Structure formats: C-alpha cells, structure tokens
Amino acid sequence: MLFCGCQHTDVPVTVIHLNQPQSELIFTILHEIGHWVLHSKYACPLQMPWYVNRPYENETVADIAYKAKRALRQKYGKEWQADLWALIAFQMVGTKDDIKAFLIQHPEKIPLFLMAVAALVIIRIGKFIRKLVHL
What we know:
Blueprint: E1 5-7, E2 14-16, H1 22-39, H2 50-53, H3 59-75, H4 78-93, H5 96-105, H6 110-134
Antiparallel strand pairs: 1-2
C-alpha cells in the first residue's frame, strides 16, 4: 500500500507524501483538509435520518434502527466523508485533466465523484436562488 497522507489525532499536523502524481497529490491534500474541516474538535457529527435516530418501543424495530445506524456510520464514516469533501473541492480547484487522471487511477471513486458533482450542482443552484430572492 502506498502512503499518501495522514493526520495526527491529537495535534494539527498532517504528513503528505510528495512523491506522487499531481492528481494524487491534489486529492490527498484536499482529503486531509477535509478531515480537518469535517472532524475537528468543533465539527458537527454525521447526521442520521430521523427514522433511524428516534426511539422505538418495539424491540425488533429498535434493533433494526440501531443496526441501520451502525451500518450507516461504518459505510459513510470519516474516510468516506473526507473523500466526498475532497472530490467536491477538487472540482473547484483542480483541472479537468487532473480529475480525469485521478479517476482513471481510482475507478472505485467514480460513484462518489458523481455524488460530488450532484452536490456541487445543488450548492450552486441554492446560491443562485438565494441571489434571486435577495434581488
């Protein structure tokens, strides 16, 4: 496994391996910034859907909700969140060639990249609507 980057959990220090392709380096830096932004001491925890968080009187339903919550936290944990943040930021700061090179090297990230594209479109539409409302 190639070492790309890591953060120290107690102090604000990030170590990044610089001997990697430019697209990898951009993603690694953005991924580590994403960890800092999303998982710093004052960050909000992962929001769960209301139907998973609410208390259930029925023991079977409560157990299903607990297992669903645990599965969501495992699947969409800190690494997944930092990857999504990095891919959204990558679209803003990276070139199309860098993004394409990164996705060629990491085809498993394509579904997450498509989610990042959708998120960025939603963010931009929201900003546009807010500007229209304020006019």
